[in-house]
Amino acid sequence: MFTLDLALVWLDLAGVFFFAVSGSLLAARKQFDIVGSVLLASIVSLGGGVIRDIVINNGPPIAFTNPVYLVPPLLAALLVYFLFSSVQRFTSLLTLFDAGGLALFCITGTLKAMTAGMNPVAAILLGVTTAVGGGLLRDITANEIPTLFNARDLYALPAFVGAGLTTLLWQVGLFNGLTAVMVALVVFAFRVVAWRRSWYVPLAVRGWHRAGTGASANSGARD
Amino acid sequence: MFTLDLALVWLDLAGVFFFAVSGSLLAARKQFDIVGSVLLASIVSLGGGVIRDIVINNGPPIAFTNPVYLVPPLLAALLVYFLFSSVQRFTSLLTLFDAGGLALFCITGTLKAMTAGMNPVAAILLGVTTAVGGGLLRDITANEIPTLFNARDLYALPAFVGAGLTTLLWQVGLFNGLTAVMVALVVFAFRVVAWRRSWYVPLAVRGWHRAGTGASANSGARD
Amino acid sequence: MFTLDLALVWLDLAGVFFFAVSGSLLAARKQFDIVGSVLLASIVSLGGGVIRDIVINNGPPIAFTNPVYLVPPLLAALLVYFLFSSVQRFTSLLTLFDAGGLALFCITGTLKAMTAGMNPVAAILLGVTTAVGGGLLRDITANEIPTLFNARDLYALPAFVGAGLTTLLWQVGLFNGLTAVMVALVVFAFRVVAWRRSWYVPLAVRGWHRAGTGASANSGARD
To answer: Is residue C177 part of a domain?
Structure first.
């Protein structure tokens, strides 16, 4: 289990870093200062894991007790500070980093729930909550409409797929560092391709169509 | 206690269902997709109880550990998906379902706090928090001004009445399935009648009047 | 330790009162009713401590279990109700009360974390979270852009200074009621002077300037 544990810590820290960059990018676009950039990076990158650890209810959240978790947000704010001016495509970049965080957190959140003794359904739920929680906090805090509810952007669905695959692999004993990376790649690809190709699911009401996409696109919204 | 416990589970699940419908209704009006509808229904219907269980600090929240709590949000999203097109009065419907959830959650939240050994004041507070928490999360997440703070809508007051009555009945040993339903009806009626008849309490500042309601209405705001 | 404990309870309650007034002031300006004023006062004044106690994960939050914590929000709502009409400079007043709460909470939050056995870095983090948490909840709930992210307002930095000084004094054994009050005054003065004199830190991106402050001011933003 040593290598798996170690792989998980690295996957978790990588996820923290990806989400932190998405937070600092949004802070930059919203004209926050450098302190606000560090804070928003921290909220989005550590928020999902803090919610996860509070729900598991087994001691203080690791983001507070282990100082190594502060490195990724600081690094992200520095990176954005020095490199943002050369950023050409802000939305693409934010989506890519957000997708990276989502792909890793749906795995580590699910695993942490299962190793804490929660049942498979609860583990999937908590994995998805961990994955979407940070981004939801980011958008609420920055007073944006949450990406999670953007009907032109599949967000929760890839996280559900990742949490489900992780649970399945764990149950049949095939979960390891390699399969973890494969699941992460599947989730990342699903999220990014869906966004690029404008895949979507039906609206919340049968027969309603997306506004402003033209009649031909609308008929596709029916599924 | 068996029948009371069973009654409470059903009251709680009914409250979850009512709030879930209010979440899916708002998702429909905001043009979220079906996944966003399920998610918003889950946040509003399970959020109050998750906050309650986190505050009680006695193991993971039941919404995560007991999969039966996922049925009402899924059901609500399905109902709204198939039936929303025929909805005539959106606001009335959302208010009615929201009032149903409020009426049941202020009871079950208060009881859960008392059976966890909290004092009566804490139990009332937690009952109100449970009752208004989900709706607050719904409105914050959907980027709306919270109903909780709408000065034309009594929202917290009926919840306080319900939590207070529940605590009183429990202390004098008269709390049972029947009195629980009666308290729920009182809270529901209070909330809906107050909304229909535009009852209100004074504004946060003495001498200030509600804008845009005409001079005669303003004088009534003075209390 | 008795006098220190007692001093801490009073400092904590004073912080609760200051934040509660800031909540009721905002409720007044947003035309909430008196119930909304009590609720927003409660959320902002008790929210930071509730988050702190949930993170520490050692029983229910004190704001729920000790009814004395309800007195400051009720008092604040009453004060604002009777005296607000005579308020001349709303923003100054809100900032002063908010600064008072911030100055006290970064101390009590840090101490509570250390006495719960958390490491110094975690204690500083939790102190800052306690101090900025209530104001963040206030602004999110009232649908405002959080003061925390206002690039023209140093907010988190004074809290970091206060939490750091508290940890330092505690570690070297010089923390007592007197030094606590001195740290609070330093944080309060830092926050208020920075706001009055428009001190700021660089924006989140190198080379970017604050909009609308003229060319001369912009060059100063580079630092």
So the answer is: yes
pLDDT of residue A50: 93
Burial class (CB in 10 A: 0-12, 13-18, 19+), A36: buried
| ipTM for the whole complex | 0.83
Is C214 inside a domain boundary? no
Total structural domains within chain B: 1
Please name the residue of chain B whose CA is at the shortest distance from the CA of residue C58: B57
Q: Structural domain of residue C128, as residue ranges?
A: 2-202
> Is pLDDT at B221 greater than 90 in this prediction?
no
CA distance linking residue C135 with residue C109, whole number of Å: 14
Please tell me the pTM assigned to this model: 0.87
Alpha carbon separation from A220 to A40, A217, B11, B40 (Å, rounded): 37, 5, 41, 24
Whether C216 is covered by a domain: the verdict is no
Instruction: Give the model confidence (pLDDT) of B34-58 as tens digits.
Output: 898 999 999 999 999 999 999 999 8
The two structure tokens encoding residue A220: 């596709």
Distance CA(B206)–CA(B145), nearest Å, equals 23
Amino acid at B171: Q
Residue in chain A nearest C126 by alpha carbon = A64
C81: contact with B, CB 8 A cutoff: yes
At B205 the pLDDT is: 80
The whole-number pLDDT of residue B219 equals 34
In a domain, C221, yes or no: no
Q: C127-162 pLDDT, tens per residue?
A: 999 999 988 988 888 777 788 887 777 889 999 999
Question: Residues 144-203, chain A: which have Cβ within 8 Å of C?
Answer: none
How many other C-beta atoms lie within 10 A of the C-beta of residue B215? 7
Greater model confidence, B121 or C201: B121
CB contacts of C125 in chain A (<8 Å) are 64, 70
- Please state the rounded mean pLDDT for residues C182-190: 95
